[in-house]
């Protein structure tokens, strides 16, 4: 017979699982895809079980706001336009997405968009900037969560990159790479993003070296660039479901850090 303590423990586990799945959906797909149906499917629970933890989706979002400050929930029209456009650009492409569709999705007139953005290109730029900032924020959270375990950070970071590659908004990182060639604003943001990734991986490698986890003769900067180049190459090459090979990628790069 299940006692009250066991029931409470199970309920707490489900509550935490829902929060984790909700954060994963926002990080990899965008807040538009944060639906109760999607959450219960990924959590493998019933809608009734969801409502035993949260009274509504808004209740869930409010708790997410309380436990993290890295999400930009649409608190005003400008933010909401960015979040809606981000999803539409990712799903339909830049050319096939018009300002009328974006405006309608937010519930405003098309002409009202120009009070916030000069053009569709300006809106796309802001979507790209938002996406890069979101990726850096998530990286920081992984590092903070597993700060004393370089190997765990490496595993979680590789897992995140693999899952992100399958998300609709991953196209925005590719667009940032191409836009950086002719757009100074995006160039600066993208270079900052790349420098951030390399520096964080360098810190990770050097932390592992100091603990005797990786080869002490490693050139940490070159090793970090190998990581970035590896994922950039995989994302630009033939279509591969990186989620299906995330464990192999972890073992491959971990072996490289051990033996190089």
TrEMBL record:
Entry keyword Transport: no
Q: Name one GO molecular function term.
A: DNA binding
Q: Which Pfam families match?
A: TetR_N
Question: What name has this protein been given in UniProt?
Answer: Transcriptional regulator
DNA-binding region located at which positions? 35-54, 98-117
Q: Where is the HTH tetR-type domain?
A: 12-72, 75-135
Lineage, highest ranks first = Bacteria, Bacillati, Bacillota, Clostridia, Eubacteriales
Q: What residue ranges are annotated as transmembrane?
A: none
Name the PANTHER family for this protein.
HTH-TYPE TRANSCRIPTIONAL REGULATOR YJDC, TRANSCRIPTIONAL REGULATORY PROTEIN
UniProt KW keywords: DNA-binding, Transcription, Transcription regulation
